[in-house]
Design brief:
Length: 465
């Protein structure tokens, strides 16, 4: 049954393209009645334009229209939505046109007058294909989030560049220096490099060099023997031995004391460590990844970091941008952290309000991704109604009145709107709402309190893109 199919996850998005308005509405209503999310384009040209603007999973198109053909739609869908299933409908059926449509990749071919029961059966079959694609994509997403570069969340040019660099770096055995401000995700990058390297089945060991004194840091790195110092009641292996065959990540390496830097350099050159209090060298095979938020060249000039060690650590480098430099990634990060923390804290969170999302996107985030992650976790924990909103924001991130600023840019204020026709005001509010939601028509329709099909008609009426 179509209803059962449509309910397996979010509704399948269907685009109906036909310059016969009555026929298009009949098809859309028939499919919407059994759970499909239907949108109507009442001309071939509009349908082609909508394929560029939104992602549809099933397309039902008339073959012959005044300004284009169903084969034009099929070709466009193959170009911009290659996974979509296209069903071609015509009242002028011929064997030749059917063969041509199927050869170009149409899912099916139906004749007018349509048998609505048959139409729903064909769309059900197309929907099953889409649900299978969804399931495979979700499985791959989960695997990639856990083990691959997809765990490095971001769709900005800066993060694409980072991922492309990681793909080249990971398979090698070279040392890597990861640079970036506090909270940009340097350890996540180190884990991604390890998980995509030949060492992924061996240990990944992280150590923060800034958190320990010189003596304790050396013991943590190289281990010690019984009696090496007070309280050394037994032999203890260090991080190098524990990570043997795998990867050792040295966080905040710029804060490492100079005497320890000398010993680390010796290990990088000889591939041997000596436990504190011992004279016996131990061979180790460890890949070194390090990270710092300091300018090491300035530290070298100040005499607090060894230049020879710097060059050994930075055979390859990865520079992480601040969150403010890739603000377009904030919506993706918000959704990712909502899923993560909702699962961790066993909360049912269906989403986040436009106002709260807008507020999070407007903040400078000096603490970068870590600060955003902590903010979303706080919102998830205190939420009580299943939708994150302004009242869930941590107090330090809310406006003085606890509300986000209005998004409508009206020049000098409300007075600018007085005397303008209602249609112009409606056009302004629809256009601004689309900007605020990043062009997400579903979210814009919810914010405006109208149906998606009504919003599409308004977009067409006002010539909005």
């Amino acid at each position: 049954m179509a209803k059962t199919t449509a309910k397996a996850g979010p509704p399948i998005k269907v685009l109906v393209i036909d310059d016969d308005d009555a026929h298009a509405e009949t098809v859309a209503d028939s499919l919407a009645s059994v759970g499909y999310d239907c949108t109507v384009a009442d001309s071939g040209a509009l349908g082609l334009a909508m394929l560029d603007r939104d992602a549809y999973e099933v397309i039902v198109t008339d073959l012959r229209m005044k300004d284009s053909t169903g084969l034009d739609v099929l070709a466009k869908a193959n170009e911009v939505l290659p996974d979509a299933e296209v069903i071609v409908v015509t009242g002028h059926g011929t064997v030749q046109s059917a063969v041509e449509a199927m050869q170009q990749g149409a899912f099916n071919y139906l004749l007018k007058p349509l048998d609505l029961k048959q139409l729903r059966a064909v769309v059900d079959n197309a929907a099953r294909n889409q649900h299978l694609r969804r399931a495979n994509a979700e499985l791959n997403r989960r695997l990639d989030e856990k083990f691959g570069f997809e765990g490095v969340i971001g769709n900005s040019p800066q993060m694409h560049e980072v991922v492309n660099r990681l793909q080249r770096i990971a398979p090698t055995d070279a040392t890597v220096l990861i640079q970036g401000d506090t909270g940009t995700g340097k350890e996540l990058i180190a884990q991604a490099i390890h998980q995509n390297s030949p060492r992924k089945n061996r240990p990944f060991v992280a150590l923060n060099c800034a958190a320990l004194s010189e003596n304790i840091l050396e013991s943590e790195l190289f281990g010690h023997i019984r009696g090496a110092f007070t309280d050394a009641s037994a032999d203890r292996i260090g991080k190098f031995e524990y990570a043997n065959g795998g990867t050792l990540f040295l966080d905040e390496v710029g804060d490492m004391p100079l005497p320890t830097q000398i010993k680390l350099l010796r290990v990088l050159e000889s591939h041997e460590i000596t436990r504190v209090g011992s004279n016996e060298p131990i061979k180790v095979n460890v890949r070194i990844l390090s990270a710092t938020n300091r300018d090491l060249e300035e530290a070298i000039a100040a005499g607090t970091f060894r230049e020879d060690l710097y060059h050994r650590l930075k055979v390859l480098t990865v520079k992480l941008p601040r969150l403010a430099e890739r603000s377009g990634d904030i919506p993706l990060l918000i959704d990712h952290f909502i899923r993560m923390h909702a699962s961790r804290h066993h909360k049912e969170i269906s989403g986040i309000s436009t106002a709260a999302r807008r507020r999070l996107m407007s903040l400078p985030w000096p603490g970068n991704v870590r600060q955003l992650k902590n903010a979303v976790e706080s919102m998830v924990v205190v939420d009580y109604d299943g939708v994150l909103d302004l009242d869930d924001l941590p107090p330090e991130l809310a406006d003085d009145d606890g509300a986000a600023p209005l998004p409508i840019a009206t020049g000098d204020g409300l007075a600018d709107l007085v005397g303008k026709p209602l249609s112009e005001l409606e056009r302004l509010f629809i256009a601004e709402t689309l900007k605020v939601t990043g062009g997400n028509r579903e979210e814009a329709a919810k914010t405006l309190g109208i149906g998606e099909r009504t919003l599409y008609r308004k977009i067409k009426e006002y010539g909005l893109n």
